[in-house]
Amino acid sequence: xxxxxxxxxxxxxxxxxxxxxxxxxxxxxxxxxxxxxxxxxxxxxxxxxxxxxxxxxxxxxxxxxxxxxxxxxxxxxxxxxxxxxxxxxxxxxxxxxxxxxxxxxxxxxxxxxxxxxxxxxxxxxxxxxxxxxxxxxxxxxxxxxxxxxxxxxxxxxxxxxxxxxxxxxxxxxxxxxxxxxxxxxxxxxxxxxxxxxxxxxxxxxxxxxxxxxxxxxxxxxxxxxxxxxxxxxxxxxxxxxxxxxxxxxxxxxxxxxxxxxxxxxxxxxxxxxxxxxxxxxxxxxxxxxxxxxxxxxxxxxxxxxxxxxxxxxxxxxxxxxxxxxxxxxxxxxxxxxxxxxxxxxxxxxxxxxxxxxxxxxxxxxxxxxxxxxxxxxxxxxxxxxxxxxxxxxxxxxxxxxxxxxxxxxxxxxxxxxxx
Length: 419
What we know:
CATH architecture of the domain at 4-133 and 241-255: 3-Layer(aba) Sandwich
Number of helices: 14
CATH class of the domain at 4-133 and 241-255: Alpha Beta
Helix content: 25-40%
Strand content: 15-25%
CATH topology of the domain at 4-133 and 241-255: Peroxisomal Thiolase, Chain A, domain 1
Shape: globular
Strand order of the largest sheet: 5-4-6-9-1-10-14-13-11-12
Radius of gyration: 20 Å
């Protein structure tokens, strides 16, 4: 059982913080990757009531800073959060594609458990919108198995489309049935995102203006408003290209209790990897390694999915929200789509609400920041300070995050418990 707790968190506003000249193609940065890191880091320190001098080490999750923002060696830039207090502190970058943020947290947890650090600062950041669509597609494709996938023109919508096709074939769903299932996922996330003031697609955004809070509204969109990206996945099945950052402060649970602030225990961690090349996976209809990560996390926590009140799952594509929901055990295999169509997992659900933040579909998906953001927003739910939608049944006590990297090659599941 983990003996580490989160004692502070911050999530920046997510969005596209650039100005693009459609005529010249020139892109002007409105909020840099460095500014995002500093905002999140300072916010988390203030939320925890600690200073830079109290921190023993910094762990940064970022996916492709060199490609997205021309900055490798990014962890060292975290010193700007508190130039005096953080000078000479150890700073480490962690990379595991879209799970970089969760892996950064895990490495920080291991350092605290080992006694190498007493208090740690965990950051996640990505600045994606400095590139055009072609550049973003290439940067993300480097997180695939390049020799067989990226180099052959395979994109991440294409990789997850293989899961969608495998899922439909496995359970015998027609294209129309699958489309309604996936639209139900998008609609729930869009609806929740409207109440998240930090969301990329929040109030006044495209999903709000188009009224995309029901599956019917999404399915009724004309082709040009919801084109096929990779059969059978359409535009509104895909997460957003987002800039943003998030941060956490962690310390030993016994220190957190003595410290007396608002803390949430990291009750269990599950970290499991699948084969990187999708060509040698035999089960392209389920998250096999994800299920193992779930098993490990709940075993360490001494809990089951029945104990969980809120979940943040990795909806990089709507099909993956179905797969994560089933891997967690919230739905039986092959049945998650029906559960979403029947209205389960919303804020009114008496058991477990999913993606109250709006998920990657509405909150946004700054890839290196996503894992930290999941934990930050769940922390806020568990300490009674929800950002955005909250469960109707009242303050949650147990939460789970399910963050994947690449084509679900990396699977990170964390069980969090209120204290």
